[in-house]
Known about the structure:
This protein has 151 residues and is mainly alpha-helical. The protein has one domain. It has four helices and no strands. Helix 3 packs across helix 4. The protein starts with 36 loop residues before the first helix and ends in a 7-residue tail after the last helix.
Amino acid sequence: MVVPKEPRPGAAPSDGSRPTEYRHTHVDHPGGSRNNFGGLALALGLLGVATCWIGIGGLAGIAAVVVGMFGRSRARRMGGAGGGVATAGLALGVLSTLIALLLVGGTWTFYERHGDDLRRYQDCRRDTSQDPAVCQQRFDEVLKNPPASSR
C-alpha cells in the first residue's frame, strides 16, 4: 500500500499554486514560554527612578524590586531568558527606593527641626506691614544658626 506523501507545512505545493498555511517557527527562548516579569520590572524601575523625587517613585521602586525578584526566579527556571532585564529592573527599583527614602527622611527632618521657624516666616510674609526682605533675612539666619535647643 502506498501512502501519499503530504507536503511540509509552509512549503510550496508541487502543482505551482501558493501555499495556504504558514506557521511561525521562531522560538524566542527554550520552551516557547515568555518571561514578561523582566520587562515589567525594568519599566517599573525606570518609572521609579524618573519619579523618585515624589512619593510615587518609592512605591514604583518597591514594585520593581518585587517583580524583578519574580523575573530572576523565572529566568533561572527557564534557563536564563530575561534574567538580565529583570536584574536591571531590580537594581533600578532598589536605587529609586533608596533615593525616595532619603528625600522623604530629609524632608521629615527639616520640618521636625524648622517647622516652627517656617510658620513664623510665613506669618511674617502674610503681614503686609513687614518687609519681605526682612522676613527672608530672619529665616535665613535661623537656618544658618539654629538655637541651641533645636540641635
